[in-house]
UniProtKB/TrEMBL annotation:
Domain of life: Eukaryota
Protein's UniProt name: NAD(P)-binding domain-containing protein
Family classification: Belongs to the NmrA-type oxidoreductase family. Isoflavone reductase subfamily.
Pfam families in the cross-refs: NAD_binding_10
Ranges of residues in domain NAD(P)-binding: 7-148
Coiled coil region boundaries: none
Molecular function, one GO term: oxidoreductase activity
Gene3D superfamilies: NAD(P)-binding Rossmann-like Domain (3.40.50.720), UDP-galactose 4-epimerase, domain 1 (3.90.25.10)
Keywords tagged on the record: NADP, Oxidoreductase
InterPro entries linked to this entry: NAD(P)-bd_dom, NAD(P)-bd_dom_sf, NmrA/Isoflavone_reductase-like
Length: 308
């Protein structure tokens, strides 16, 4: 009963690392990839070169290798990558041995009412619609905002470095709204631990909400100042300014591969989602509550470990 992982970038690599460490899944992990690569992690698993545009071929390969569950961590950044995931869903549904599918989402709960704020939500809604029409059992993994961003460069992470709201290293902050909007946060490796444990569940909820802690930017700022032992330089952008795309961009990590225009657009988008409450996840029926043996790190503990 093989587990296939599609996409080995930031989130995918974290999930793969966690799977590899679980004795239950040793020799049962397959990486679906366009191009076979070699590194210390990938060399521990079987890599299966696939063409996402050839649905019948992918389905046949899933059958041949006995793939019961497919975990997609494809970076959905365009129509092309969205179509790759939709094709993978079709291939999994067509496979006679594949029963389960986790789509690439790993953020907030994507809903139609948020489309005016972020049109790319359509990609995730399309995947959800395709899964509903399929015979596959599925769950959409929702960890909120990854804590990793506020621990870089001092924490273990596979996520690309970016600054959202507060640059702890430089002691500067550009906070959306009044700083009191609730943001559900989870460390990537904690999310991966819960996800891997959830593979044992007989039934999956539509949304697998996983949260380390609910916080606000103001709380995050207070803890960061306390841990760093200094007051930060802080700017608050009002909701009106944010809705007009007039946002203050906090200092970004060195060497990131984005233009100033892309960073401005990304900051404005995340700020709009923040003040709209998109990152506040439901408290009821969180998946991590079903696994009390997994201790998810709190935000303050995470910050302390990263910056003390």
């Amino acid at each position: 009963m093989a587990i296939a992982v599609a996409g080995t970038g930031g989130v995918g690599r974290t999930i793969l690392e966690t799977l590899v460490q679980d004795p239950k899944y040793q020799n049962q992990i397959i990486v679906l990839t366009r191009t076979v690569k070699s590194d210390s992690l990938l060399d521990q698993v079987q890599q299966l070169q696939i063409d996402y545009d050839d649905i019948s071929s992918v389905s046949a390969q899933l059958e041949q290798h006995g793939v019961h569950t497919t975990i997609s961590a494809i970076g959905i950044v365009s129509e092309e990558t969205s179509q790759s995931q939709l094709n993978l869903i079709q291939a999994a549904d067509k496979s006679t041995v594949t029963r389960r599918f986790i789509p690439s989402e790993y953020s907030f709960i994507q809903t139609e009412d948020l489309l005016p704020i972020d049109s790319s939500i359509k990609f995730w809604l399309d995947a959800a619609a395709a899964l509903k029409k399929s015979s596959l059992q599925y769950t959409r993994v929702v960890p909120g905002f990854f804590m990793d961003y506020w621990g870089m460069p001092n924490v273990r992470t596979n996520i690309d470095p970016l600054t959202f709201g507060i640059n702890i290293a430089k002691g500067q902050a550009a906070i959306p709204g009044d700083g009191n909007d609730v943001i559900s946060m989870t460390y990537t490796y904690d999310m991966a631990k819960v996800l891997v444990r959830a593979l044992d569940l007989e039934e999956w909820p539509e949304f697998s909400v996983i949260v380390g802690q609910d916080v606000t930017y103001n709380q995050l700022l207070r803890w960061a100042e306390e841990i760093r032992g200094k007051k930060f330089q802080v700017v608050y952008d009002s909701a009106d300014k944010i809705n007009q795309n007039q946002v203050t961009v906090p200092p970004m990590p060195d060497g990131i591969g984005y233009s100033e225009e892309e960073i401005q657009e990304m900051t404005a988008l995340v700020s709009r989602l923040t003040v709209a409450g998109a990152f506040k996840l439901p408290v009821e029926n969180r998946l991590n509550a079903r696994f009390p043996g997994i201790n998810l790190v709190s935000v303050k503990e995470f910050l302390t470990n990263a910056w003390k």
